[in-house]
Amino acid sequence: MTPTSPWEGAPATAPRATAATTGQAGAAGPAPALLVTGASLLGERTVDLLVEDGRVARLQDAGTLSAPAGATVLDAAGQVLLPGLVDLHTHLREPGREDAETIATGSAAAAAGGYTAVLAMANTAPVTDTAEAAERVLDLGRAAGLVDVQPIGAVTKGLDGAELAELGLMRRSRAAVRVFSDDGRCVADGRVMRRALEYVRAFGGVVSQHAQDPDLAGPGACCHEGELSGRLGLPGWPAAAEASIIARDAELARLTGSRVHVAHVTTAEGLAAVRAAKARGTDLTCEVTPHHLMLTTDLLTGYDPVYKVNPPLRPEADARALREALADGTIDAVATDHAPHARHDKEHAFVDAAFGMTGLETALAVVAETMVTTGLLDWAGVARVMSTTPAAIAGLADHGRVEVGAPANLVLLDPAASTTVDRERSHSLARNTPFHGRTLTGAVRSTVLRGRLTATTPETSETPEVHPC
User: Which segments show compositional bias classed as Low complexity (predicted)?
Assistant: First the structure.
């Protein structure tokens, strides 16, 4: 399903999308010319691409363009060219938990992973539930100068699930907030969720829901409820906790004529609810994380807290269903749910450790391995689920396309390169990657934000270097 742009139906008083109101990073002044030669555009056609003044100026068959004087030239032979990745679901922790991540370090991790835009979740301290808080995140992202950081606004004040936050004021702020979420917590009260959907409909916004009914799990739930959780003695969440909220919110979206986005769907039951909603024409989209595509509950047998995540890892049957749903279009987007933590929050007994995994730097390689290598998606499909559709859901018109006249937000990757993940080489402050020690195929070589190189990987290194604009 092609998502409706959240700009459609916006009131005349909505702020105009400019560099000051869309989280755009970068220094003043034009970017130098950039020529990319011999790249495989979406894995389909070998091209040369010329960037001037931060935009794609020419896009022609390989070998037909020459570099202007003073231009930077990237030899991209053997590399795939995609639009810069867009992440609908990033936790940057600032303000409040700068010991786990800052907007600058999270932006560096994003650029290294091929991202040119990220949406920053609202569960900071203080919570992003006011216009001022959203503008602070916007300004910190622009100062970092590596990716466009777009704040997500909280649905409810303090994420308490009771009273709506300043949705309209956040929308009318310089941050021009379009997406609202209490992620980490479900908006469990149906009346509150209905009011939120009615409110954002007035300006074409979307509510992103952490679909997990808190009343269907006991205190301390920390993994998938099933045979393994019983054997390990760990309290779990049943799949029904996800499916029931998706079904309820689909009905509320139909009732209000509004838009709902399901964050990190994880179960076959949840997918059935998504399919049923879409079959009825409900304006509903959903995302999946890379870790839920690859990792499964069997990893919990060692009680390693690096695998503790919310929603939890599921059995292989669910992971397979997720991969198939991403391939057939039931799932609209891939989002990282990048959730960095300080060591002292993660290095505990499993039941006491913090939930979450980092993911910005490994997402593209995990999707390549689970979806492209297996033949479930081609590179055009990867561009769709990791860039074009996320940009459309979030209303980021400057992202998600490679065409003449468009801003040059690009990523080049080597599909044949293998990289062994080393948490100590991460650009994130956190080290809680579940892929440490794994060898993944597919490596980012260059990330370009409006014509400026924000990350490059030297030939002698597996680790991208980042370059603030």
Answer: 9-29
